[in-house]
Amino acid sequence: MYNNKKTMLLLSTAVLSGFALNADAANWRLVPSITVTETYTDNVDLDTTFQESGFITQIAPNFSLTGNGARLNASINYTANYFYYPGNSTDEHDLRHNLQTSLSSELISETFFIDGSANINQQFLDRRRAISTEQVSRTDNRRTVQTYQVSPYLVHRFGSWASAELRYDFRYIRTAADAEQTTPNTFFGNSLSHTGGLSIQSGREFSKLNWTLTGQYRTEERENSLEYKTTTARADFSYQVSHMFALLGSAGYQKRDALGSFANFSGFIWDAGFRLVPGPRTSISFRYGNQYDGETFSLDAMYKITAKNVISLTYTDRIQTFQSLAFDGTGADNLNSSLNSDFISGDITRRKQWRLSISGTRGRTSYSSSAFYSQYQSDNLALDEKRYGGSVSISRNLNRRLSIDGRFSYNLSKFLSDNINDKFWSASTNLNYQISKSLLGSLSYSHSNRDQSRFGNFNGGSNYISLSIRAVL
């Protein structure tokens, strides 16, 4: 199924060619650094029945490279996280790689472009097993996940009347081969997707009526499941009734070929709605229609309380696989932004989610908070879930050298297959002191607590006290 080495080699060559052609025209900045952290915790191994305490040493060399130019924007951020666990003769060392890269290159002026990205991080395999907001504790429920994307595309403008884009998108996800978990009938595996699409969008000649015509075909090969294919032909419209109010709508056809899945569908899709912008502080977009063989709607509302304080409310309804969750980031709704606690599986999932968030700054203080409700429907009943949660974070600069921040998060999962509730909450505080221009010291404390009836050894609290020094070289 995965005989795609030639395709990957060809696309990688195209990306590197675009990088090489435009590298000299960009301004480059390299920032190397290293962070050394000593952590004491009363829960070194999250999987053991009895909690063990101990000190953990973490050494994390890092380099950040950015390049910005007229025809090239690139960034590479890599960290090698080395963990040393003294007193454990069987598993003393652990090396975890973390990589974020992005590339946007213009190979032929205003005509041919290439976007690309590569990411490597650690994610939880199974939401029902051991989880944590801190990465220092060991668990077999954490694995390295790699995501790669290459997207070349052509752009052509028909004067001021319209513009067309022809795009090919290649995405690949690779997970650890020894991934195991406890949820019945759930399998992990690599996945590979190809997407080809043509879109034509209205130009400046259309002042009130704007339109976009889209045709797209996507196929995703899943290592432990059947292929998932989607064909879409769609027309989107917006009509500006006044400077404050616009009518929105779409109509088209979609075929989802997902044999044996609830997501299998072939038929007419449509929606209609409006966008209201009564002033510079407020915007509301609402759509209602039939996108997934049944009624659905979407909402995106925002209000600027002040120039630096914003509140927003959104509702989304999407059919996704783990691959799309991994690439668009929507899986990282809980625990914290750096850890994804959704399932890693090949199953198709429909997620309906409400989210309310508020963020802003006032003087030397910054804050953000959010609350969400998600409902998951999957091919595998064991993955069906209702999830409630939220988080609050606040930071303040006490002076030009000293800052403090704190965070609280809460997550309640109700697994529908066995009627088991899983509660997880955490709280942390961090004190940062700028010792010199190149040295930053940090002292932090974190506490988390788990309450669920499936595995007794996953219950109870965990405490972490850390002291770290970061040096910019």
Short recap of the structure:
With 473 residues, the protein is mainly β.
Question: Can you describe this structure?
Answer:
The longest helix is centred in the N-terminal third of the chain and has 19 residues, at 5-23. The protein is globular, with a radius of gyration of 24 Å. The chain has helices at residues 5-23, 322-328, and strands spanning 27-41, 54-68, 72-84, 93-108, 112-124, 142-158, 162-175, 191-202, 209-222, 228-240, 245-257, 265-279, 282-290, 295-306, 309-320, 349-362, 365-378, 385-397, 402-415, 420-434, 439-452, 460-472. With 473 residues, it is mostly beta strands. A hairpin with a 5-residue loop joins strand 9 (209-222) and strand 10 (228-240). The protein has one domain (5-472): Beta Barrel (Maltoporin, Chain A), CATH 2.40.170. It is built from 2 helices and 22 strands. It has a 22-stranded antiparallel barrel.
Ordered list of secondary-structure elements with their pairings:
Elements: H1 5-23, E1 27-41, E2 54-68, E3 72-84, E4 93-108, E5 112-124, E6 142-158, E7 162-175, E8 191-202, E9 209-222, E10 228-240, E11 245-257, E12 265-279, E13 282-290, E14 295-306, E15 309-320, H2 322-328, E16 349-362, E17 365-378, E18 385-397, E19 402-415, E20 420-434, E21 439-452, E22 460-472
Antiparallel strand pairs: 1-2, 1-22, 2-3, 3-4, 4-5, 5-6, 6-7, 7-8, 8-9, 9-10, 10-11, 11-12, 12-13, 13-14, 14-15, 15-16, 16-17, 17-18, 18-19, 19-20, 20-21, 21-22
